[in-house]
Amino acid sequence: MLHRLRVILLYVFVSGLALFSAGTLDATPADSIPAEMGVVVIGTGRLQGDDVDAARTQAISNSLVTAIDRAIGDLIPIPLKVEHFKTLNITLYSEPERFVVGYKVLTETMAGKTYRALVEATLSMASLRKYLAEAKMLPEEISSRRILFLIAEQNVEDSAPNYWWGKEMLPAQGVCESRMEEVLRQQGFQMVSHDQSPPPAVEETPGAPPLGPGPSDAEAVALGKRFQAEMIIVAMVTTQSVGNVMGDAQKSFKAVFTGRMLRVDTGEKIGDIFRTAVAVGPDPQSAGRQALGDVGVLAAEALAPQIKAAWQKKEQVRISATLFVEGTRNLSNFVSFRNLLKACPLVIEVEPNGIRPNEATLLLQLKDTTQALADALMLKSNEGFGIHISEITEDTIRLSLVSK
Q: Which residue from 18, 61, 68, 278 puts its CA 20 to 30 A from 24's CA?
């Protein structure tokens, strides 16, 4: 039935005219976005047989994707929309009712087998912007992806690698790191400065050996936490002579970048990276520095999409589900179950939505399917009660708490 549909539609009214620019490259500034916005859009449906109601419902439903897409166009630029399209398709485009305050059908008509409806709605832009911010899809949220470089660099005539961490090491920025930073800043990322004297990372555990040029994952993550970084790039970059060219006047030098990227919060390795670059020149140090800079550019260009993909994975798709729990008369069991649910890594949020005698309804935000949550719950060991699951659908779980 039409009155049960919640419709998100977009049409910005300015001086009585409908103005909209979905193709802009820059998002609208946050302080110019109203909390709520009056919107209007046309939706179409195809008449199958004599079922006008179905065509009408389809017309309104089909307008949701366009409406949400236009609303997002006011908040994020097209490149970010492209980057996050898969997530947007699963979340916002599939659950537009989360951002509607109210609506009404202005008019409707049939043209042959095509049904069209004109609907006006009030859209919660504040809620939409909040969701995009939490998912780090807004332009200003990209800059919060704080990256720390742990890059040991050795030019062709250096006796040992140069690096900034560890005791008695200078907080200097190498050639490779400097070029990488330039590339990643252009991509919108924020670098964590280690140009401090002394840096907080040198406060090592008493009795422990000083950190060397090749820190372990655990050591790198510890450094990242001290600098409040979110991603760490750990690498060793060296140069070597690869022979003369054009007689003895010019020499060729190759820089080799071998590194990996880690997430600070989980310690997970996101990926490995290996790149090489060759530079030619009469002076070994100058040509070596050129090769170090060039390989830094190549490495940064390869790492940028990996970092973005890692953030998209981190801000996982939220699946909304309803959990019906019977057997809540034993309050102790129910409290223990709630704690178990909140501790489950598949659960993002748990909100109560109603309590009746011996039954409670909980609203869940999940990182995976309801079946995955049900499987995880069945593996949990509980001293006071057992869990009996009676029904699982795409967005619903029904279970009972059975006292032991």
A: 61
The C-alpha atoms of residue 210 and residue 214 are separated, in whole angstroms, by: 11
Instruction: Show Cβ contacts of residue 107 under 8 Å, excluding neighbours closer than 6 positions.
Output: 117, 118
DSSP secondary structure code for residue 162 in this structure: B
Q: What is the pLDDT of residue 19?
A: 30
Per-residue confidence (pLDDT) for residue 234, from 0 to 100: 94
Residue listed under structure tokens 């959990």: 323
Q: Which are the contacts of 208, defined by CB distance < 8 A and separation ≥ 6?
A: none
Q: Longest Cα pair distance anywhere in the chain, in angstroms?
A: 92
**Global pTM value:** 0.47
Query: According to the model, what pLDDT value does residue 113 have?
Result: 87
- Torsion sign (Cα): 286, 291, 294, 296: negative
**pLDDT value for 311:** 67
Residue located via tokens 């997970």:
268
Tens of pLDDT, residues 50-71? 888 888 888 777 777 777 777 7
All domains of the chain, ordered by start, with CATH?
A: 2-141 (3.30.1660.10), 143-314 (3.30.160.150), 319-403 (3.30.70)
d(CA 117, CA 57): 9
DSSP-assigned letters across all residues of 53-118: HHHHHHHHHHHHHHHHHHHHHTTS-HHHHHHTHHHHHHTTTT-GGGGEEEEEEEEEEEETTEEEEE
Q: What is the dihedral of CA 253, 254, 255, 260, to 10 degrees?
A: -170
Structure confidence by residue, pLDDT tens digits, 293-331 = 999 999 998 888 888 777 666 555 568 889 999 988 888
Task: Label residues 227-254 b or e (16+ Cβ within 10 Å = b).
Answer: bebbbbbbbbbbbeeeeeeeeeeebbbb
| Distance of alpha carbon 15 from the chain centroid | 38
Q: Are 378 and 387 in contact (CB under 8 A)?
A: yes
pLDDT surpasses 90 at 386? no
How far apart (Å, rounded) are the C-alpha atoms in residues 404 and 402?
A: 6
Give one DSSP letter per residue of 186-210, joined into a string. Answer: HTT-EEPP---SS-GGG-PPTTSPP
At 199 the pLDDT is: 46
The yes-or-no verdict on residue 216 having pLDDT over 50 is: yes
Of all residues in the chain, what percent are helix, strand and coil, respectively (each to 5)? 35, 35, 35
Contacts of 182 (CB under 8 A, 6+ apart): 297, 300
